[in-house]
Design a protein that fits this description.
binds alpha-D-galactopyranose; eight-stranded mixed β-sheet; 12 strands; 24% strand
């Protein structure tokens, strides 16, 4: 957990002046519903306790100065003169969200920002959404602009599309903005309606295992998957004219009409359509406190992501396979975009120790380095951090 005092201290050292205000937005782990968000479907993530903290104070001019404690890098941009997008640098996210907020009508002032994060980049835990939502919230607040949480999430997504170049869905930003402590969120990514479902962790907990593998091509492969889905919709519309997104296609529809799709597109669509159905069932299982059923759906989700959607990798598959051999693990699957990053596991408390040691030993044997394994509680959404916290 980041100590608010150190961020404040770094702010004073760099920018001097008065007392900054502090904001914090979490990363997320997705329990189930992967690659369904940009298909108008359902997702079931939870915000985590790790996140990005921002110290912020307004300026008299139109400039934004931003410093990343993690990277030791300072950047500066002008709100009225947008820089070139897609530079591949960390402040693409900050400038991107500032520009998106301005486009959405927020009257932003210039600001000084210091940012520190304990969400590891590339771990599939949405470090970028945490950065967008925390800096977006900070910029709006110190400017005296009121921005609704959903609007903030949409601005973060717009930053990805226009400034970063990833055509992501809305899950990560919405979870970071709207997370609720002790709850998972069932999000309808078409209506953006969010339903909080209590996560009972008396007996079973959520464990994240980070492969520490980051795949370079993740963003372009991600955009390709999205394009495959859009192609699927286009073709299915010949036989199902009411379909506007894969969300509108049922498992039965696909069984009946899947034959008209090229093989790869059919598999991509099959993943999305079955994953949507699994996510709705998982939400029901979670509500009923039935972790066994939830776990079963998670194993199935992983298989579908591995075989039909092809976004897993050897390290993720190994983590899931090792987890399957440990007594007391209800379910495991890759989480997030894929091609590296983390798995999410439902583990009974009594099996935690055994789980940690088996995963670490077996994974290290295979890949020569240990994964990072930790229990994750469902945290709250983005907020201003008050002095006492
Ligand atoms: C990334 C994207 C999300 C979502 C997931 C896959 O995290 O940012 O919008 O598509 O991948 O479920």
């Amino acid at each position: 957990m980041i100590d608010a005092g150190t961020v404040r201290e770094a702010f004073r050292e760099l920018f001097g002046g008065g007392e900054p205000r502090l904001f914090r937005a979490p990363g997320r782990v997705n329990l189930i519903g992967e690659h369904t968000d940009y298909n108008g479907g359902f997702v079931l993530p939870m915000a985590i306790e790790r996140g990005t903290t921002v110290a912020a104070a307004p300026r008299e001019d139109r400039r934004v100065r931003a410093h990343s404690v993690n990277l030791g890098s300072t950047a500066e941009f002008d709100l009225d003169r947008p820089g070139r997008p897609r530079r591949g640098v960390w402040f693409d996210y900050v400038e991107g969200v500032a520009q998106a907020l301005v486009r959405r009508g927020a009257r932003l002032r210039g600001a000084d920002l210091v940012v520190e994060s304990d969400v590891p980049a590339g771990a599939g835990l949405s470090s970028s959404a945490a950065l967008e939502v925390s800096t977006g919230m900070a910029l709006a607040a110190v400017s005296g602009a009121s921005v609704e949480r959903v609007e903030l999430a949409l601005a973060g997504q717009e930053a990805e599309h226009t400034y970063v170049g990833t055509m992501c869905g809305i899950m990560d930003q919405l979870t970071s903005a709207c997370g609720r402590e002790g709850h998972a969120l069932l999000i309808d990514c078409r209506s953006l309606e969010t339903t909080a479902i209590p996560l009972d962790t008396t007996e079973t907990v959520v464990v994240v295992c980070d492969t520490r593998v980051k795949h370079e091509l993740a963003s372009s492969a991600y955009n390709e998957r999205r394009a495959d889905c859009e192609r699927g919709v286009e073709l299915l519309r010949h036989v199902l004219p009411a379909v506007t997104a894969l969300r509108d296609v049922s498992v039965e529809d696909l069984q009946r009409y899947g034959g008209c799709l090229p093989e790869i597109i059919r598999r991509r669509c099959r993943h999305v359509v079955t994953e949507n159905a699994r996510t709705l069932r998982a939400a029901g299982a979670l509500r009923a406190g039935c972790m066994e059923e939830m776990g079963r759906l998670m194993w199935q989700s992983h298989e579908s992501l591995r075989d039909d959607y092809e976004v897993s990798c050897a390290e993720l598959d190994a983590l899931v396979e090792i987890a399957a051999g440990v007594e007391g693990v209800a379910g495991a699957r890759m989480t997030g975009g894929g091609f590296g990053g983390s798995t999410v596991n439902l583990v009974s408390r009594r099996a935690l120790r055994e789980f940690g040691s088996t995963i670490t030993t077996e994974f290290t044997k295979l890949f020569g380095h240990a994964p990072v394994v930790y229990v994750s509680e469902a945290g709250g959404g983005a907020k201003e951090v008050m002095n006492a916290e």
